[in-house]
Amino acid sequence: MSFVPPLPKSRHWTFTAVTTVVVTPALVWGVDRSYRATDRCLRANGLSIDDPDVEVPDACSDISALLGLLVLIAGAYVAATAVTGLCVGVAEGRRRRGFGHRRWFTVTVVGVTAPWALASYAAGYGIGRLLRPPAADTSWTEGRDAARRTLEFLARGGQPGTVPTPGFLIDEPVHLDARLQYARHYGTTVTYQQTSALAFGSAAFVTGALLANAIGNSNARSRAARLASPQWRDHELTRVVVTPTRTWCYSYGRWLAFHHTGVLEYHLDPHGVVLLFADTEPLRLTGPAAWLHAVLFAYFRFGASALTTATFLLPIGANQSPAASAATSPSTSR
Q1: b/e string for 234-256 if b means 16 or more Cβ within 10 A?
Q2: Radius of gyration of the chain (CA)
Q3: What single DSSP character describes residue 172?
């Protein structure tokens, strides 16, 4: 089980690949068929489609209008995908993400079916790399510093202070009331449907439709397997309250109590904390206040002496700098 949350999924690349595989051949086929039909109709009336001053006779007006509409749609499609690629490239380049999220298969598909979109993305990505990255979130550093100061204070014999908890009624003192990302780790059963495609038209259109169907089925199968495997679920930004004996989490409309004496393993990493139990799914709390939870948990579960001996508190050690702490790998349980 990994304690580090997965990187955000780059589903927009999969969506773009499937869309361009279907739309590009369809538009090419439609424009080509309409152009040929218009040309035949004009030739039958003694006219040429290459003449810029040609007046379209009534007999050819419908197919000519269809050709104009398809050309307009194709132009809008090319412009929209190019502008989108440019904007996405700038955003991902500025955030220093890998080119195309390093999803080389989908990037190749987009490059073949919509090379102008990939070219504009590449240009935007280069521009984004030249820009200053977004400002770093200092709340994490402040949270770790607060945890470190609290650890030092309690290790010297101090007593944890209490905090007000509006609307939360309990007969114990509350020492932490914060907003943290909540998640549980478990597997489940997922069903999915396979689809079949029946396409008529040019070889390019049929090939594109079959390829899009194959990609869709492959994505559905992979998505079902991914969703069914044990992983962090029920993600929610929730209120977390810590008392001397329990950690309370407000999840999906109800308060859940996690008794500190029931914790068999406690892990801490730069992203948050993980609590493992004997009779329920693991709990993950992520956020700037997560390290402070680790300090309070060790203090109330094992006493002040554990603040200098608990191995999961080593990243918060008083002699360790914030930068070094952020680079520390997940610790083992006490």
Answers
A1: eeeebbbbbbeebbbbbbeeeeb
A2: 30
A3: S
The answer to whether 90 and 124 are in contact (CB under 8 A) is: yes
Alpha helices in the chain (DSSP H): 11-44, 61-94, 104-113, 115-130, 139-155, 203-228, 290-302, 322-327
For residue 277, the surrounding DSSP H or E stretch is strand 272-277
Question: Structure pTM?
Answer: 0.56
323 domain residue, yes or no: yes
Q: What is the Cα–Cα distance from 281 to 287, expressed in whole angstroms? A: 20
Find out whether 277 and 261 touch, Cβ atoms under 8 Å: no
Tokens of 93: 């380049």
pLDDT in tens, 36-82: 998 888 888 888 877 777 787 888 888 888 989 999 999 999 999 99
Domain that holds residue 66: 1-135+196-229
The residue with tokens 């905090």 is 163
How many domains, the chain?
2
The residue type found at 297 is F
* DSSP, residue by residue, 279-333: SS--EEEESTTHHHHHHHHHHHHH-GGGGGT-GGGGGG-TTS-HHHHHHPPPP--
